[in-house]
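Example 3.2
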Amino acid sequence: MVRQSHQWRVAWHQTAEESRLLLEGGLADQNILDLPEAQRPEVINDRGRQMKAKPIQRLCEDHGMPQLFARPPHPNDNPFIESAFSTVKRARPTPGSS
């Protein structure tokens, strides 16, 4: 199994709509929707409410892609992204930003 991140967005708040736009953009950019349904990858999400929302569920169902969820209390399942989140959260402000 290969885990890849194909797209990212920066937003003040993570909403179901932001999540849908992110996922839809990544699928389009990587031409995943051009694949036959049997060859499309599984979507593995965290257990955040945005990823469990109906728009995301419908998107996955509409495109014939199973939606799986990471194990609840195990942030070390994907240490690289957790490290990136930690860096962003602790980053010092740059001059001119508030």
